[in-house]
Every structure is written in C-alpha cells, then in structure tokens.
Amino acid sequence: MLSKFYMPTKVIMGEDCIIKNCELLTTLGRKALIVTGAKSSKMNGSENDVKIALESIGIQYEVFDKVMSNPTIDCVYEGASMAKGTSADFIIAIGGGSPMDAGKAIALLAAQDIGQENLFSGQYENKVLPMALVPTTAGTGSEVTPYSILTNHKAQTKTSIASDLLFPTFAFLDAKYTESLGLMTTINTAIDALSHAIEGMLSVKATTVSDALASESIRLIMNCIPDMIQGAEIKNPLDLKQRELLLQASCIAGMVIAQTGTTAVHAMGYPLTYFKDIDHGRANGLLLGEYLKLVEKEEPNLSTRILKVMNVSETEEFKELLNRLLGPREEISSEEIFQYSARASKTKNMNNCVVKPTEDDIKTMYTKSLTN
Fold first, then answer.
1. pTM to 2 decimals?
2. Which of 64, 234, 355, 366 falls between 20 and 30 A from 204, CA-CA?
C-alpha cells in the first residue's frame, strides 16, 4: 500500500527555547505580526518572551491580540488586513489552538487575495507568510499541522482550511507557559490530544509511522491521567515535568492528524462546541468512549490494539477513566440529537473513518454520551 509522511516544521523544545533560539526568526523576515488572544499570553509570559526574542535580534513587530476562543472568519480577515497594513512579512502565533489556527489563516490571507466564498476550497496560490508558533496549551498540536479550524457562522459549525501551505516553519515548545492553566483546561486539552492520537489510529489514512507516533502520544498521556484524576479530586495542579510530557504528547498527536485527519469524534464534537459552547477537547472526551465501543463491535482487533496501547483491559474501563476526568456530563435534548446527528453525518471527517457510523449510530452515541 502506498503511504507518505510529511511534516516540515522544525520543533524546538525546552525552557526559554524561543529566547535561546531567537536567531532562527531572522530567517523568516524583517517584521513580525504577533497573533494572540487578549489576556492569556500576557499572563503566562509567552508574549513577553517573544517580544524579548524579537527585540534582541532587531526585528520589528506589531501585535494583533483580538483572537477569541473558536476564532471566526471575520477575525482572521481582520488580522490579515492588519498584517498587510503594517507590512508584516511573517507571523508569530502564540496561544492555544485558537490563536495558532487564526495565525495560520492570517498568514495565508495576508499573502494572497481569497474571498470568503473560496476560503475553504483548498485551491490556493503557492503563497503564504512564514510562521513560527508558540503553543501555550497541550492539546491541539496545531503547531505541527496543516489545518486552520475556524468558526463558520454561515454553516453553523467549525470548518477547516487544509493545505500544506499552513505548516509552520518553526514550533517553540516551552511547558512553563502551561503552568498557569487551570486544571480543567489542562484536562480538556489533554483529552483533545488523546482524541487526536486515538482517532489517528482509527483513520483510513493511518500508516505504520502515524500509528507509532500515536502510540507514543497515547502512552505519555495515559501515564499522566492518574495524576490528573487525583488533581481533579483534590484540586492539586500538575508539576512542570508532567506538563512537559503532555506538551510533547500533544505535539506528537498533532503530527499524527497532520497525516491522518480526524474522524467521527471530531465530527460529532463540533456541534457541541458551536451550539452548546462545550470546550472542544471536552466535547471529544464526552464522545470518545462510545465511538470506541462502536469500533469494538465492528473492528474488534483494532479496538483491542488501541486498548493495549492505553494499558486498559476493556472499553468500559477507559470510559470510566474519562468519566472521572470529565466529571458531571452535559445533557442534550432529543431534538438536538436529531439535529446534530444530521450535521455530523455529512462532514468530511466521516470519510476518514475505518468504522464509518451511520446516522442512527451517531444518534445512539449522542444518546448514550449525553442523556440520562
């Protein structure tokens, strides 16, 4: 079977890595647009470190800090307009998945004229501003993927720009930026990374290489789960070493989905985020156990292999771990189940599934996951 692996991003990891490797930024351009949110990158020190790095090598910068959670199409067009207006010739995106995804879309839109009607077409000129990404959560892996996920109000969902143009040139991973995260944010983002790795193994595009990466990501995250559960129960934060492991696991899982895409779990999670404002990683976690049960029914050898990697004996044991991490679950109505199932069944993610659920399967998974 023909397979390929492509991940051109250079990843630098470690404490103060962006300051210690600031000379790399001189290869990207002469003026940066820093893309970030309004508060978190200022509070965790990442924005200040990026500014120190740029100033130490004489690179000018402007700051676009209007990225909201689940960034909109309008947001990235506004950012691209600022990049053009300030003559920025490269992008540094700082934050969780939202600023990183916004930064990638801004890099594309600042380099070429793309109307909103063609934004998700996949048909682009071979032009993009170079990018460096600085993740401050351990979940999305966006620093090593060719995707930008945006809130699409017209379609009432989250929609992906997918192009190899969106691979960043550099990713700087410094776990100290994640130390200020609350425990539930840490858990939700870790579950997002875990979902990426598991879904990668459940994709029709999975390869020996992507499965090897997914297995290591799963191992790292599962090793941290007992401490996350304990933390959730006694309100005890994770230490820096554990956060480093989660950040590495998130990055590795990003490398996985860069090759495989995501599957039914993401397709079902998007309506929960758009309509119910449930955090993306949490939405995945609410659904992941039931999808793995469906896989167990249709492809038992595949589910057994994943359970073995997780070092759990059966799907119910994994679901119980998720329940302890997530706490009380949200509920949705039968009308919402009908609406969300119809939407999820039509997404491109479903085409990636080794076990492709029917619309009735999706209704069952929503019902078992989100009703009493």
1. 0.96
2. 366
- Give bridge partners of residue 33 from the DSSP assignment: 62, 91
Tokens standing for 168?
A: 């960043």
Structural domain including 26 reads: 10-177
Whole-number pLDDT of residue 3: 84
From 177, 195, 211, the end of a domain falls on: 177
Q: Residue 154 sits in a domain of what CATH number?
A: 3.40.50.1970
Q: Hey, what amino acid is at 311?
A: N
Please tell me the predicted confidence (pLDDT) of residue 152.
96
> CB within 8 A of 259, min separation 6: which ones?
4, 5, 6, 7, 200, 205, 207, 209, 210
CATH number of 225's domain: 1.20.1090.10
β-partners of residue 130 are none
Residue 5 belongs to some domain of the structure = no
State phi, psi for 91 to the nearest 5 degrees: -120, 135
DSSP code for 235: T
- Say yes or no: 94 and 59 in one domain: yes
Q: To 10 degrees, the CA torsion angle through 321, 327, 330, 331? A: 70
Share above pLDDT 90 across residues of the chain, in percent, rounded to a whole number:
95
Q: Which residue has the tokens 């539930």?
A: 184
Q: What tens digit of pLDDT does each residue of 289-326 get?
A: 999 999 999 999 999 999 999 999 999 999 999 999 99
